[in-house]
Queue: 3 jobs
Job 1
Amino acid sequence: MRNVSTVLLVSSLLFTSPVMAGAGHDHGSGGHSHGPVSSEAVIKKATEKAKSLAESGKIDKSWAGIKAVGATQKTFASESEWVVTFKNEKVSDVTKQTLYLFFTLDGSYIATNFTGK
């Protein structure tokens, strides 16, 4: 019986991890948020994301230095989201001159497209 108790105790110590996060912890730019972000904050996030997408080759490189036209809240399937719009006349395909980046209201990135839908 004592051996079983010892094995259970040692096993529980091996398979658990201590919780280290306390009040005031920081997740940096990729961490979770605790409430809605402002239009200025979501524009900053969108600008950084557009630059990252351009540098990784997912969108044309010319998008890396483009400033946002604006940010609006829109509702899709009963969920409100931030939609940040960018315009780039350097892109030859007219259907790809407007870029839309979507974020949750608390600033988490959702998706990017050229349709706004």
Note: Helices lie at 2-14, 39-55.
Job 2
Amino acid sequence: MRVGWSSRTVHTAAAEIEEAGGQALAVVGVRGLRLGQNGEVPRPPILDVPISEDPIRVGQFLKLAGLAEHGVHAKELLEAGEVQVNGRAETRRGARLRTGDVVVQGRRARPITPPAG
């Protein structure tokens, strides 16, 4: 079986694997992706989310940043280990975030204190 970069080839390969009774796993390339100077894939920008209280609990921040739809969703994401804070998995909904901490759940976001004024 030959797998190339075209979506047609990937879908064909996935169909052949499924027909054989296996599960399909495909790695798809992105055309036109520009790599950094060292060949690394650039990260998406971090979303700065203004907060009124510092510190803020991670569950509240997930909702405020739009990374979770509601409190139960935030709890489920944390319990499933799908949230990272500063590069480490976080499972506690009440864990406190401070200005500048980086939270990752699909997208990256960080709490910031809005400028006075």
Note: The beta strands are 47-50, 56-57, 84-85, 88-89, 96-97, 103-105, 107-112.
Job 3
Amino acid sequence: MKRLNWGILAATLAFVPALALAADAWDTVKTYTVEKKNEAVTYGKKLVRETDREIKELDRKASKASGEAKAQFKSDMQELKTKRKEAARKLDEMGKASGAAWEEAKNGFADAYKDLHDSYEKAVKKLK
């Protein structure tokens, strides 16, 4: 019988709730009305903080790679940082949006966050 590496299993399972949350996060953001702008911004900040933690953990794991893999992860991390900045910029715009600009601002953040999340998913798959 093969022995199960509990550390790897625990680390993998730790990502499952965060990934499940992120999978619907951009749709959740799109449901907020301008009257619920403060709640939407708070939710957006929570998403960005969670993603920051995930990126930091991925960066830690990627730093253990070597050679060509390390160069690829360095490139992936740069892309993630760029997309994270864009998501933060869109979140800031969403927080400042008035009624007339609300739909465009919230959809802009939701799309930027989805792009960030998709890039993160691709980087995680490469690490496996």
Note: Residues 29 and 86 are 16 Å apart (CA to CA).
